[in-house]
Amino acid sequence: MTEPSHPNATEFSRRSFLSTGLKLGAAVLVAPHVMRGAAVGSAGGDTIKVGLIGCGEQGRILLNAVLKIPDVRFTAVCDIWTPNRTRCERLLKSYGQDNTPYEDYQDMLANADIDAVIVATPDFVHATHTNAALRAGKHVYCEKLMAHTIDAARSMVVSSREAGKLLQIGHQRRSNPRYQHAKNRVLNEAGLLGRITNLNGQWNRAVSDDLGWPARQVIPDATLNKYGYANMHEFRNWRWFRKYAGGPISDLGAHQIDVYNWFLGANPSSVMASGGADFYENHEWYDNVMAVYEYPTADGPVRGFYQVLTTTSAGGGYMEYFMGTEGALKMSENPKYTALFREARAPQWDKWLVEGVVNRPEGGDGPKLKPWEKPRPKLGGGGGGSSDATVDVRETAALDAWDMPVTLDKAIHQPHLENFFDGVRGKAKLNCPGEVAFASAVTVLKVNEAIAARTTLAFKPEDFVA
Q1: Among positive and negative, which fits the CA dihedral 15, 18, 19, 20?
Q2: Which residues sit opposite 267 in a β-bridge?
Q3: CB-count burial class (<10 Å; 0-12, 13-18, 19+) for 284
Q4: Cis amide prior to 24 (ω within 30 degrees)
Q5: What gap in Å lies between CA 250 and CA 144, rounded to an integer?
Q6: Closest CA to 373 of 339, 346, 406, 322
Q7: In sequence order, which residues have a C-beta less than 8 Å from that of residue 193 and are 6 or more positions away?
């Protein structure tokens, strides 16, 4: 392996990882890359010039987030579909950012004046586009999931090391200040959950129709085939086909499962899963998936359940729920799904209120409970009089509901992109470099293997090392 030219790049030690075992996750073991502070623009200024590969829905979300970041400008956009490419080109020009549109990413990398590339293409070409950009001397921000296969994901880490260029993967929760506060202060500093024993998460969505396209905007078959697509239906609905992606567990589940590894500071030792193509007749991937991970942590074993449903939104959106002996933490990018609870047996949290780790729920002097968290009503006695008996004597006392004094007032992808550009300027460590994201990709993609095998599959420590 070529020594990275990046002066502060820390080589990932395979031997160190294996000797440590699974007690710590890749996020702890990898020292994220840091670039030396230097002029990054070709003209010697501090403005970072960016090229976007992939101008579809996710590409436009990232583009709009970047437009809010000072001293970052797009000079090139690339997409094989004219409507996507034209939409981004015109949007940028409306913001005074002149840019050149490209159909072929190779033409963009060869001719555009860019310092960094954002990759927001389908998963099966993440490695192709990322590796080409890295080898062309560009820093890369690539959307998650890192790649649709383990080998492809590993190649991205290797290319980053050999080129000495930064690779940030778009697990944007790792830069969300509310998530960082929860992990660093609520869990690690204050230990408010006690020993974490279980966790669960989900992303549920209702039935939806496949994406279509205007008849006048059909891409010729020769062009589709050149870029790896069989037809327009698969081009527009690539997430559902095995050649292009890992299915809903990859597309949606990757967000929550990455948080499992991050918050626990561990990688799993095994996974079992159930799923199937139960509803959509013209899709290849499983539309409903349920998985159970086992995590060996320093405090003891943790079992984590995850489900992704694409045939019902029942159960409420997307979240990660960490449950411990003294408290519980429900996290989501959507604030309405977040909550923090103290068990009745746990020490009071007044100290942590004073120190800014927790606060009272908005709109009251004391903790407020949601309707389903309030104490159960008393039942009348047999003689018609009142009784102190609860619904069930085995029922645990109601939890105190709390909140965290940290909110995100930016677009959800903006802090992660800011972290990437600060890394390019040498002002920050990346929050999700390739080595960290590789471990999460391994964790996620194993679910599909477990469903097919219909048995529990084990992880080895070396599986998580690229």
Answers
A1: positive
A2: none
A3: middle
A4: no
A5: 9
A6: 339
A7: 186, 187, 322, 323, 324, 325, 326, 327, 328, 329
Query: Counting beta carbons within 10 angstroms of the beta carbon of residue 463, is it exposed (0 to 12), middle (13 to 18) or buried (19 or more)?
Result: middle
- What does the angle CA 37 – CA 120 – CA 117 come to, to the nearest 5 degrees? 30
Report whether 65 contacts 52 (CB < 8 A).
Answer: no
Is the model's pLDDT at 371 over the cut of 80?
no
| Number of residues assigned to the chain | 466
Residue 316 has a pLDDT of 75
- Report the alpha-carbon distance of residue 279 to residue 207 in Å, rounded: 9
Cβ of 255: how many Cβ atoms within 10 Å?
A: 23
Q: What does the alpha-carbon distance between residue 150 and residue 30 come to, in Å, rounded to a whole number?
A: 18
Q: Give dist(CA 134, CA 392) in Å, integer.
A: 61
Report which of 80, 81, 122 is spatially closest to residue 239, judged by C-alpha positions: 122
Mean of the pLDDT values across residues 23-37? 37
Q: CA 184 to CA 329: how far, in whole Å? A: 13
Buried b (16+ CB within 10 A) or exposed e, 315-339: eeebbbbbbbebbbbbbbbeeeebb
Edge-to-edge strands, sheet with 339-342: 400-402, 339-342, 327-331, 318-324, 196-204, 300-309, 288-297, 270-276, 457-458
Which pLDDT tens digit goes with each residue over 130-146? 999 999 999 999 999 99
pLDDT, tens only, 214-225 = 999 999 999 999
